[in-house]
Amino acid sequence: MHRLKKGVLIVFEGVDGAGKSTQARLLYERLTKAHFEAELSKEPTEGTWGKKLRKLIDGGRGDVGPQEELEWFIKDRFQHVEEIIKPGLKNNKIIILDRYYFSTIAYQGALGVDPREIEKRNNEFAPEPNLLFLIEIPPAAGIKRIKKSRGEKTDSFERESYLFRVGQIFHSLDKPFLYRLPGKESVQKLSDRTWEITTAYLREHNLIER
Fold first, then answer.
1. What are the distances in angstroms from CA 64 to CA 53, 68, 95, 110, 117?
2. Which CATH superfamily is domain 8-204 in?
3. What was the pLDDT predicted at 65?
């Protein structure tokens, strides 16, 4: 087992259908196969607030407004940070997340909530990632993938005009730890790229115990 000198937080983001869940899983599998101690998690979580959010996603927002929805995301993430992310990092694990607060910035921001305020609130308790992989595809391509791979009708979260605004906010992100990846690339090419970036980061920061 390769032990790290400190924990590493890796996040995958992108509009619905970008392929981030697949890439998060593939990186997790490659790391564990290479004998790194890693943990894969997602948002919304399977906790109390996460289940409420998933029900909202599946059934539509109804009378839940953007601000109330944001509060649910904040509560779900706080629980996630306290119960999974911080303990994992403290134990020097590689924590891989399928969505994080950047999704909240983009999705709730596209509903009219100030993205800067969303980021400020999350920064009060949520640790910054070491690596952020943003898989970029046109919203129409994401919707097409969803219909094809999941056999689902697009819901209120996946309307093209809405996803276009979401994509614009994602595209505006400017972080030193951000890596933009073209979603048009094959699954294998994207997986190889995230693997190369991750292992290079571990080496360059001398994080692997000898």
1. 10, 6, 31, 15, 19
2. P-loop containing nucleotide triphosphate hydrolases (3.40.50.300)
3. 87
